[in-house]
Amino acid sequence: MKVDIHAADLGGCGYYRLLWPAEALRAQGHEVTKYHDRDVQCVWQDTIQGPTIIGLHDELDCDVFVLQRPLTRNRYELIKAIRAQGVAVVVEIDDD
Predict the structure, then answer these.
(1) Coil, strand, or helix at residue 34?
(2) What secondary structure letter does DSSP report for 10?
(3) In sequence order, which residues have a C-beta less than 8 Å from that of residue 1 and are 6 or more positions away?
(4) What is the Cα–Cα distance from 52 to 3, expressed in whole angstroms?
(5) Which candidate, 36, 24, 25, places its Cα nearest to that of 1?
(6) Strand ranges, E, within the chain
(7) Distance CA 40, CA 63 (A)
(8) Which pLDDT score is estimated for 31?
(9) Strand pairing of 64-68 and 50-56?
C-alpha cells in the first residue's frame, strides 16, 4: 500500500500524530512518503467566493492520502479533488 502523509506542521502534533506513525507503517512494509501540507500542487479557479481548488496538477501516486487539520474551505476542496482521483483520504484532527 502506498500512503502519502501530509503534516500541517513540523512541530509536536505533526510528529506525534503523522510522521512517527508513518515510520511504523514503513517498518511494516508499506511505502510511505512524507510531505509538508503545502507540497500539494492544486489547480485554482477564481470564483465569487474567492480562489477555489478545482483539481490537482498531477495524478497522485498513492492509495491513501493522510491530511492533518483541514480546517479551511480550500482543504475541503482539496479532499474532493483527491477523492475524484480515486484515492482514499484520511483526516487527522487535533484533539484539542
Answers:
(1) strand
(2) S
(3) 30, 31, 63, 64
(4) 26
(5) 25
(6) 2-7, 31-36, 42-47, 50-56, 64-68, 88-92
(7) 16
(8) 92
(9) unpaired
What DSSP line would sit under 12-28, residue for residue? HHHIIIIIHHHHHHHHT
Start-to-end CA span in the chain (Å): 30
* Beta carbons of 4 and 66 less than 8 angstroms apart: yes
Q: What is the mean pLDDT of the chain?
A: 84
Local confidence pLDDT in tens for the 96 residues of the chain:
899 988 887 778 888 888 899 999 999 999 998 775 556 777 888 888 778 877 787 888 899 999 888 888 888 888 999 999 999 999 998 766
Instruction: Say if strands 88-92 and 50-56 run parallel, antiparallel, or are unpaired.
Output: unpaired
